[in-house]
Every structure is written in structure tokens, then in C-alpha cells.
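Incident review: delayed structure delivery

Summary: a single-chain prediction request sat in the queue longer than the usual turnaround. Root cause was a stuck worker, restarted by the on-call engineer. No data loss occurred. The affected request and its eventual output are reproduced below so the record is complete for anyone auditing the incident later.

Affected input:
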Amino acid sequence: MSTIQKLSTKHLLGIKYITEEDIHLIFETAKNFKEVINRPIKKVPSLRDVTIANLFFENSTRTKLSFELAEKRLSADVVNFSSSSSSVKKGESLLDTVNNILSMKVDMVVMRHPAPGAHFFLSQHIDANIINAGDGTHEHPTQALLDAFSMKERIGKLANKKILIVGDIMHSRVALSNIFCLQKLGAKVKVCGPPTLIPKNLAMLGVEVEYDLHKGLQWCDVANVLRIQLERQDIKYIPSLREYAQFYGIDKKLLDNLDKEIVLMHPGPINRGVELSSDAADSHHSIILQQVENGVAIRMAVLYLLASSRGGN
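Output delivered after worker restart:
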């Protein structure tokens, strides 16, 4: 890649902290890396001298694999850390854990943590670049970037496009990052779900709420469907998954009955038969597999651009 442009920040703590220009730069860089990962030889030496630690204090499959693959495609040295087999179980603090890892000369930290704001806290105390791979129910910036990138590939510029986010908005870090990202790109955003799963403060973010799924789908150009996160619900917010599926589940018949074609997305993992039926998830409306492919390219772009900023702001 020729001239390296830089992001306005040293870290990716959340979409809230980056600019529209940053987002466009990440997208342009991801386009180049998407070409790379579709070549017979999928590696480039861009981060050959960079060591990256993946710190996952919560379970993850897609995000962890996607980051690890992105790092290896860039030829970085990769260290994987799992809290379930670490001294965290013995009471070691987050800062001590990270400082011990950094003492091994790690340059970048990709972290998922259950506490909102954990990444911001770390950024105040250590020199390495930090990438937020999910902090509690707060943000998941790379997911929002790959979602918006995938939308843009399918429907063009997102300015004035109508995006509906469906499902468990209250417990979703994907929803908040998507709202921030789409609004910075000029899209119109609505959320849809049961009243018990819609946060009360969404109006402050300029987001409309629609409780009728059919009306919401009829309005939108893209429906981004979220998983019901039962593991984050300390009380029961819906009577049953069966009832949720009856009122807020999307199937092929519902899509075919709309007056227009819409694009269907899901960050995964899908609860098939709950938020999406198999015939909807696997239909021509769906760009779910493209999201997975784009996830690697977007994460390569973020890693590459942040590594180029080392020693900067």
C-alpha cells in the first residue's frame, strides 16, 4: 500500500470517538485488503514487526477468529490470552494482567471485556494501541464498521438510507455502535423490538422507535437483526422465545410480502427460528456471509492504520 494516511486517534475505543473521515479511511483501506484476502497468497508483510495480544475476558468465536486471521494475514506476531486459564481467576487486576503482557513487548492489544469503559481505562494507563472487541453492553466498533461497510457494498452511499435495527436493543453493544456509525455516515436509523428490550434514552440519540415489525420492514432499506441475549438478562424481559419469534421473528414469507426488496443482516450467532428463520437467513435478501468476509478486511484495515500511528498522538 502506498501513502499511509492516519486515523485521528491512537486507539479504537468506540465509534463515538472516531470521525466520519476515519470511517471512510478504514473503508478505503479495507477495500484494498479485501483484494488481498481473495488472492491465492493471502498474506502481506505490513505488520511483520508488530506483536499483538488478543485478550478475551468473555467468550467469543467469530470476533476472536476474525481478529486472529486478520493479524496473521498482516504477518503480525500473535499472542492469545484467555481469562478462563489465567491469573485473573486468582484475583489479578486488569491493569496488572495487561502490564504483565506488555512487559513482553506487545505493541497492540485487542480486548473484549464485560465491563463498559474497560478499554478507556486501559488507554489512560498503557502505551500500546487498544482495540475494543466489545465492552459489556456498551460498544463493539469493528462490528459496526463491518456492518456499515457491507451495507455500502450492497446499496451504495448510506446518506439518507433507512436502516432498521431489530431485536434486543437494550443488551446489545452492536446496536449502539451501529447507531453511532450510521448516523456519522448520514443514514436514518430506527430500532424495533418489544418495549421491554428498548432503552428509554434512545430519543436523546435521535433514534426513532417502531414497535410494529411489519411497518418497520416496510420503511427500511436494510434490516440489521440482533440476537436475543439471554445471557445478559438478569430478569425475564420477554414471556418466551416462542412469543418473541411470533411477533419479531423474520421469515421468508414476511420478506416476500413487503412492497419492496430489503437487505437482511445479522452479526451472529443466529438463533434460527427465533429472530430469523433459516429460509430468511439463507435467502437472496441476506448478506450475512459477506459480513463475515468483510469482518476480516475491516479488522486488517483497523490494525494496519493504528499500527501506522504508533509513536503519534
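Verification: Strands lie at 51-56, 77-82, 108-113, 129-135, 162-166, 188-192, 208-210, 222-225, 263-265.
Action items: add queue-age alerting; document worker restart procedure.
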